[in-house]
Amino acid sequence: MSTAHVVHINSELVPNQRLSILKGAAHDPADRSDDGNGIVGTSEVLQDALRQARIVAPTDSTVVIQGETGTGKELFAGLIHELSRRREGPFICLNCAALPEGLLESELFGHEKGAFTNAIAQRVGRFEAANHGTLFLDEIGDVPPGLQPKLLRVLQERELERLGSGRTVRLDVRVIAATNKNLSALVAEQTFRDDLFYRLNVFPITLPPLRDRREDIPGLVRHFVRNAAASMQRPIQIIPCEAIQTLMDHDWPGNVRELQNVIERAVILSEDGILRVPRLEPRRDIERSHFAGNTLKEMERDYILEVLDETEGIIGGPSGAARRLGLPRTTLISKMKKLGIPPRRPAASGADRASAPFSQGQPEIQRASCASLAPGAA
Fold it and tell me: How far is CA 203 from CA 36, 50, 66, 176, in A?
């Protein structure tokens, strides 16, 4: 009688350690490259982006990293810095979308005391702070039009003047920019200067969304589970195959960042050593929560339904919905009646499903995705 293919992982948890290679899985290579700077994945599209990063890193050329939100643009910028001749210098980051125009100008270029109201002391800007190192400008497409000529001048001349100062400061800074917008479209719309675009777009690198590299999801799940379990001191021993399959079937509009958040939540919900994946919306609008616009009563009902899904209809007991919601069993049953939530027949437990036989036609990626994180596993 065949049983579930369970793969054993060395479970010792050391901060910042590399993810261990799975033992006993013929089709599981290492989850990340030796010099990937924490970037997990072996898919061809990701490896192609990594190759481009390694090629451009030793130069001083300006790089634009393009990709959807949550694809790891800052990680790639950090990798390029670490592989460059500037690795001993500073790596300074600034999100250009996080500040209004006046503050952004001061953050970029610095100011002198008295340059404007509340400028009570001299301030060194991010360009100066990154001297002899790398400046990472995230969300470059959100730089206001009025500030773009000043940014262009600094990139061209490699010098700046702090606000309120007439003294020129020479710079030796490599710039890496990132955006989740189409800069060419912004140029066509005349909201982004074409000369600034061409100055930045020396070496573009496009990062693939997670839905285009689904084969990397099992490795990312193992990586995030181990980190979250270590941080929360909540041991996770088994990642069921159906949990991996659920995660691989999701569209991940928020990409790797969304996956990391889901895994952290799953670890919080998993009290029996088996990873419990929370309910995932098939097509969620990443610009707002799926609770947005709902009443408090609807939000409460949705959340109870979600927890019931995660506990497979079990209300009482140590793994039941009442325990997870922090409510007495009778109180939860009363709330369910008021909210019109019918009781459910509990399904087979996750542990039972994890030990269920595989069919002969089961995809190989699913076979290699079941993982045991138990200490001392052979």
Answer: 19, 13, 11, 10
- Length of the chain, in residues: 378
| Domain residue extents for the chain | 7-35+211-372, 44-206
Per-range mean pLDDT, top range of 12-26, 259-273, 284-298 = 259-273
Q: How far apart are CA 172 and CA 175, in angstroms?
A: 10
What is the fold of 7-35+211-372?
A: Helicase, Ruva Protein; domain 3 (1.10.8)
pLDDT one-digit tens code per residue, 219-266: 999 999 999 999 998 889 999 999 999 999 999 999 999 999 999 999
Nearest-angstrom CA–CA distance, 148 and 178:
15
Q: What is the CATH number of domain 44-206?
A: 3.40.50.300
Amino acid making up residue 332:
L
Task: Tokens for 236, please give them.
Answer: 């996770």
pLDDT confidence band for 26 (50 / 70 / 90): very low
Q: Using alpha carbons, select from 264, 274, 279, 259 the residue that is nearest to residue 214.
A: 259
Following CA atoms 209, 214, 217, 219 in sequence, which dihedral angle do they give, to the nearest 10 degrees? -110
Is residue 183 left, alpha or beta, with left meaning phi > 0 and alpha meaning psi from -120 to 50? alpha
Burial 320-356 (b: 16+ CB within 10 A, else e): bbbbbbebeeeebbebbeeeeeeebeeeeebeebbee
Answer whether 0.85 is exceeded by the pTM. no
